């Protein structure tokens, strides 16, 4: 009869050592599924601390399958779950930023709470997602962009996934994707759908050796820089930005969120292709302000206005559209 390691009492915040041991036990299957479920629910009900988030991320990082990335590579990723079902902004931003000369290691997955995740939309555009995943290191080196399927790089999560489904509510593992990049990027633009949690999340990121990062949360609960109004923006590491930004800070107009409401993968793919071919409107402006923030994180722009102008030039020259075509052909 097997015996399981006990998990600490999560009713009060855990110390760094206690959190590190707890998440090691969870990911290494040294504790029971019932105990894990109770622990994760209690953490969520109390509200995870920055220490707990950081130690969960460290435990996941220690167990992932890594790839090599060029110096200066970044990730543009959100935690998801904002419920707004928008078009794929961070996917488009990744293409625009990569086409602007910044290597992008895009960490993501298929849709969980939306109709079309990054992988679903890229596949609808013609990317062979199985090959894109297996050739991620090669495409990052040769094209400056890759897609890192979370399932391919985080074998320790296989046991956790059914437990999360059974719980049926948000847990600390919903926050892990952006913090556990297989490319070990040290520059990141991360969207979180909880404005009140942005500071805590930024403190966690800052303790993980990040060179420059920006945690953004639209005040509507959007897990990206909002094109509709103000966004909470918490700088990490070498980056320094105002704590509230808005479209006009990048010289862009505001648009209601409904203007970028998405659909199924085919719908989102068609919209993304039109964007890359130069279509103007709310989707383009949402991509421009997020790309501007990403270019600042990468050290390629000194202001949101400069970043938005660079991103617009990249689109209008057809560079991002060509990059997508090259990526599809490569796979």
Beta-strand segment tally: 7
Percentage of residues assigned to helices: 40-55%
- CATH fold-level assignment: Pyrimidine Nucleoside Phosphorylase, Chain A, domain 2
Helix and strand succession?
A: HHHEHEHHHEHHEHEEEHHHH
What's the overall average pLDDT, rounded?
95
CATH class: Alpha Beta
The span between the termini is 48 Å
Beta-strand fraction estimate: 5-15%
**Can you tell me the residue ranges where pLDDT is under 50 for at least 5 consecutive residues?**
none
Q: Structural class of the helices, strands and pairings? A: alpha/beta
Shape: globular
> CATH homologous superfamily - what is it?
Nucleoside phosphorylase/phosphoribosyltransferase catalytic domain
| Gyration radius, in Å | 19 Å
Strand order of the largest sheet: 1-4-5-6-7
Count of all domains: 1
Q: Number of helix segments?
A: 14
Most strands sheet = 5 strands, mixed
CATH architecture: 3-Layer(aba) Sandwich
Binding site for Mg(2+) 2: 223-224
GO molecular function: anthranilate phosphoribosyltransferase activity; magnesium ion binding
Catalytic activity: N-(5-phospho-beta-D-ribosyl)anthranilate + diphosphate = 5-phospho-alpha-D-ribose 1-diphosphate + anthranilate
EC number: 2.4.2.18
What features would you describe in this structure?
The protein has 331 residues and is an alpha/beta fold. The chain has a single domain (74-150, 171-330), classed as Pyrimidine Nucleoside Phosphorylase, Chain A, domain 2 (3-Layer(aba) Sandwich), CATH 3.40.1030.10. 44% of the residues lie in helices and 11% in strands. The chain contains 14 helices and seven strands. The protein has helices spanning 16-27, 33-46, 50-61, 89-99, 118-125, 129-134, 136-143, 150-153, 160-167, 198-206, 265-276, 282-297, 304-316, 319-330; strands at 74-78, 104-108, 145-149, 187-191, 212-218, 231-237, 244-245. The strands form two sheets. It has a five-stranded mixed beta sheet with strand order 1-4-5-6-7, with helices on both faces. It has a two-stranded parallel ribbon with strand order 2-3. Helix 10 links the parallel strand 4 and strand 5 (212-218). The longest helix has 16 residues, at 282-297. The model has no long low-confidence stretch (mean pLDDT 95). Its EC number is 2.4.2.18. One of its GO terms (cellular component) is cytosol. Pathway: Amino-acid biosynthesis; L-tryptophan biosynthesis; L-tryptophan from chorismate: step 2/5.
């Amino acid at each position: 009869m097997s015996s399981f390691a006990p998990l600490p009492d999560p009713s009060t915040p855990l110390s760094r050592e206690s959190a590190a041991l707890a998440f090691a036990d969870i990911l290494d299957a040294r504790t029971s599924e019932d105990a894990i479920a109770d622990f994760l629910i209690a953490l969520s009900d109390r509200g995870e601390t920055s220490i707990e988030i950081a130690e969960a991320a460290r435990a996941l990082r220690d167990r992932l399958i890594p790839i090599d990335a060029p110096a200066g590579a970044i990730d543009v990723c959100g935690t998801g779950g904002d419920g707004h079902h928008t078009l794929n902004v961070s996917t488009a931003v990744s293409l625009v930023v990569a086409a602007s000369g910044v290597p992008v290691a895009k960490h993501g997955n298929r849709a969980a709470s939306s109709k079309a995740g990054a992988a679903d939309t890229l596949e609808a555009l013609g990317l062979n997602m199985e090959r894109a995943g297996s050739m991620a290191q090669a495409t990052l080196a040769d094209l400056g962009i890759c897609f890192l399927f979370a399932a391919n790089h985080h074998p320790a999560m296989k046991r956790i996934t059914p437990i999360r489904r059974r719980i049926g509510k948000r847990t600390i593992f919903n926050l892990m994707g952006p913090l556990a990049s297989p490319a070990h990027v040290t520059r990141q633009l991360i969207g979180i759908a909880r404005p009140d949690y942005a500071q805590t999340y930024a403190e966690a990121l800052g303790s993980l050796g990040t060179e420059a990062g920006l945690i953004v949360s639209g005040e509507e609960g959007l897990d990206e820089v909002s094109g509709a109004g103000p966004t909470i923006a918490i700088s990490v590491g070498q980056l320094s930005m105002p704590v509230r930004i808005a479209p006009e800070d990048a010289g862009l107009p505001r648009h209601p969120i409904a203007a970028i409401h998405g659909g199924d993968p085919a719908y989102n793919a068609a919209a993304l292709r039109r964007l890359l071919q130069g279509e103007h409107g709310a989707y383009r402006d949402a991509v421009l302000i997020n790309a501007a923030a990403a270019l600042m994180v990468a050290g390629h722009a000194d202001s949101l206005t400069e970043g938005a102008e660079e991103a617009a030039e990249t689109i209008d020259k057809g560079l991002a559209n060509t990059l997508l075509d090259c990526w599809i052909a490569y796979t």
